[in-house]
Amino acid sequence: MNEHLKFTSKLIGKISLSFIKINVIGQLTALLISIISLITLVNQSGSESGFFKSILELFTSRPFAISIVLLLIIAIPFILFSFGNKYLISKIIHLIIAEKGEKVIYPILDTTFNKIKSTHPPLVEKGADFLTLKLKFLQEIKSSTENKWVKKAITYGFSKIEINENDLQQENVDFGELIKIKVMGILKEISEPDKLFFWIILGINSLVLTLIILKVI
């Protein structure tokens, strides 16, 4: 129990830190660069009409620059949030596999499979509809009391697996073992995620600011 709590605390700590870096610090940094770009444009215009009226005038004097800046201000928060969430999910799965792997995943898969086997035996028989088994398995995982991050990892892996004819034609096929191998195979393929998307977004923002300062756009 203590080990489980330590792992959960460690996982939550790392995920929370990554969330702050991407969805808080990242958002604020990107927004700051865009606002600096906007202020620079207004200052360069030399207009004395006031800040908001000067922005409207820029659609005539420098339409491309002001359109790009306003688009970045509006779009970047949504883009960062979307990519940030995908990054966090990949990081969660990577951490679970790297730290615990089979020791955590296998017992949960065994427990879930055995529960389905005892309550819905036809679903685990050879030749049964795997799609129905898949849906039932996902339902059982989601309703279990396991750590929610571990459940997310298993749900992701299970949703990606496929059972083909070759799998079903094996003699004495054990659906439980087959599912474990398939799920772990999917999860192990996920490498540690990087923040390339984050640096690309900041790079684009910084490039636009530089081009505005140099009056290239």
Features:
elongated, mainly alpha, 217 residues, 80% helix
How would you describe this structure to a colleague?
With 217 residues, the protein is an all-alpha fold. 80% of the residues lie in helices and 0% in strands. Helix 1 (2-45) packs antiparallel against helix 3, helix 3 packs across helix 6 (148-160) and helix 3 packs antiparallel against helix 9. The longest helix is centred in the N-terminal third of the chain and has 44 residues, at 2-45. The chain is elongated, with a radius of gyration of 25 Å. It starts with a helix and ends with a helix. The mean pLDDT is 80.
Oligomeric state: single chain
Secondary-structure content class: mainly alpha
Rounded mean pLDDT is 80
Residue share in helices? over 70%
Give the helices and strands, then pairings.
Elements: H1 2-45, H2 51-61, H3 63-99, H4 102-119, H5 130-143, H6 148-160, H7 165-168, H8 175-188, H9 196-213
In short, what is this structure?
This protein is an all-alpha fold.
